[in-house]
Fold this sequence. Notes:
The chain is 38% helix and 10% strand. By secondary structure, it is an alpha/beta fold. The protein has a domain at 2-34 and 102-177. The protein has a three-stranded parallel β-sheet. The model has no long low-confidence stretch (mean pLDDT 90).
Amino acid sequence: MGGLVARSACHYGEAEGHVWMGSVRHVVCLGTPHLGAPLEKAANVAGWAFDRLPETRPFGDLFLNDRSAGIKDMRFGNCVEEDWCDCDPDEFLRDRCREVPFLPSATYCFVGATIASRPDGVGGHVGDLLVTYSSASGAGRRRGIPFAAENGAHVGGIDHMRLLNHPAVYDQVRDWLA
Length: 178
């Protein structure tokens, strides 16, 4: 989620001419659901289904639809206010994401993980158990995040939580920032 917040902050910082924008040289995203997170999409489907019947509606409201706006933003990788204003945050699987361009003065990098050793095949679809590799890399069928090939990395055989403290991730980030 931090990568979505960073992309949003850069977008609004540039739009509002904040002085700190001149200091941004790198944005590194670790396991960010740029194109959405399957678990949030599943929660949306379940909440929508529970909301259809009066008998199940209270359970949907209590256990599913009470997720925070930040969690709901991960459904499709929302970065800007226009993605969610004037709409029902629990509407059924509607992708309203607008493209948020990268800062021209910054290098954007990503690290995606998979529990499998390779990012293709089943490993890519399962991802790190929270974020698929295609979402972390921004390589979707309908949307794409323009990461340069040299600014992406894959770490295999780990889950999302191990990604955040893995030595290979540290080495890669250090190389990008060097």
